[in-house]
Amino acid sequence: MASSKLLSQPRWHRFLPRNLSRVRLFSDLPSQRHVSEPQNNGVDPKSNNNTRKASSTPSSLKEPELAKFSAIADTWWDYEGPFKPLHKMNPTRLAFIRSTLVRHFRKDPLSARPFEGLRIIDVGCGGGILSEPLARMGATVTGIDAVEKNIKIARLHANLDPITSNIEYCCTTAEKLVEEQRKFDAVIALEVIEHVANPAEFCKSLSALTAHEGATVVSTINRSLRSYATAIVAAEYLLHWLPKGTHQWSSFLTPEELTMILKRASIDVKEMAGFVFNPITGRWSLSDDISVNFIAFGTKETNEEQG
């Protein structure tokens, strides 16, 4: 739990223009015992009896990014593989999502399934490592990804558990679902925007998918000197946590840029937090330090004309 001193003096406000300084620092971190994590480490090919047909649509991701993630799609559920950093970060990401959505939708913070009745879409779901715990917390989950191999892996793994087997996985894009006029109570896109060709248009799609008075959660990496040193040089070249070339520093967005892009897409950022890694414990935690990894929670502006 952040101290009152920390909450009263959030360092990340220096990254924001004056008219955005009302954005709140993440607080009220719940116990992570309420955050469910997937229990199955492997994928059983025999469990693919009820797979849903994937659609092939144009992607907002750059073509090299599609090829890059397709090449390592089989390793999504390998906890020691290329996606190990995301598995490590997942409980912390879920803690932020749980706290902000519970508060916004006035759900019971002590419930094991606080997302009952909520329609949530996981944009860029990969192999489903976020979609599954969201489903376990009671949400009706749709997971979409432009890489077909990711969707196949996600379906296979979800079918190992009756609780997650009803996740709707689709090989499609946010833009395609906007054309289909789909709406969700909460739209989540974690570690995706740094890989898309046009972040502004991508955020417009996220906004269009968000229902009236709904919520949008986006996480990414700050374009800072520290992020270049840690997220690229250290993570990819020194520690080999990620395959070389996973990230392009020039594609990162600063917190100010993301806030303004979302604002122009009718998403008003209300809270923001940073993710910091403790090399001694090997765990991630939430912080007011947004100089590298950060996550933002916003709400759909009510003055937007609803379709």
From TrEMBL:
GO terms for biological process: methylation. It catalyses: a 3-demethylubiquinol + S-adenosyl-L-methionine = a ubiquinol + S-adenosyl-L-homocysteine + H(+); a 3,4-dihydroxy-5-(all-trans-polyprenyl)benzoate + S-adenosyl-L-methionine = a 4-hydroxy-3-methoxy-5-(all-trans-polyprenyl)benzoate + S-adenosyl-L-homocysteine + H(+); a 3-demethylubiquinone + S-adenosyl-L-methionine = a ubiquinone + S-adenosyl-L-homocysteine. Its EC number is 2.1.1.64, 2.1.1.-, 2.1.1.114. It comes from the Eukaryota. GO terms for molecular function: 3-demethylubiquinol 3-O-methyltransferase activity; metal ion binding; polyprenyldihydroxybenzoate methyltransferase activity. GO terms for cellular component: extrinsic component of mitochondrial inner membrane. Component of a multi-subunit COQ enzyme complex. This is Ubiquinone biosynthesis O-methyltransferase, mitochondrial. It comes from Hibiscus trionum (Flower of an hour).
